[in-house]
Amino acid sequence: MSTLKTGALRGTSGTADSIQLHASNQSVTFPGAVTITGALTSSTTALGGKIRKIVVNETNDYLTNPTDWSNFMSATITPTASDSKFVLFAQPSQLTVEGGSETQIRIKIGDEIFGYREHRAYQSTGERWSPTWFWVMEGSYSAGTAYTFYIQAKRTGGSGTVEMGNSSNADWKSSIMLIELEA
């Protein structure tokens, strides 16, 4: 086995540092952490748009029996460009819907409302989940302006308890991740 040591590799075009492997399913293994600067792109796979920014928020927020639309958790992002799309993942530490009750979940950004989700307890004893919600949002956002994405909930039926989050264990965090993508 041979060892090559150099400060940088440059393609024959001389326009960028790069490593190109023979097209026979070769791979590169790095012994430690790798930092990627610039865009991660591919001409042979469908990677889609570039990730511009990621915001993650963990919270101990707790909401019980919301009779009107109430904020549960949120994340704020300042877009880097006006043509961005957003992907939002949210997971409450727990969602409890007691017998016969229903609750709806939605996203609110300013006056805009996005994608409803519904949870219903069919059993008289109630049900408990830790769901992961996922939304893709396209809209008109101004670069450099902060936007807060709120997860809202409302009990829409029944008389049983509806709870989001966990009031008794501070280690049980709900989380929300907001990803800005190149459109």
Main features:
12 strands, globular, four-stranded antiparallel sheet, 0% helix, 183 residues, mainly beta, single chain
Give your account of this protein's structure.
With 183 residues, this protein is mostly beta strands. The strands form three sheets. The protein has a four-stranded antiparallel β-sheet, with no helix packed on it. A four-stranded antiparallel β-sheet has the order 2-11-5-8, with no helix packed on it. A four-stranded antiparallel β-sheet has the order 3-10-6-7, with no helix packed on it. It is built from no helices and twelve strands. It is globular and about 70 Å long. It has strands at residues 51-59, 63-64, 70-77, 85-91, 95-97, 102-109, 112-120, 127-129, 133-138, 147-157, 162-164, 174-181.
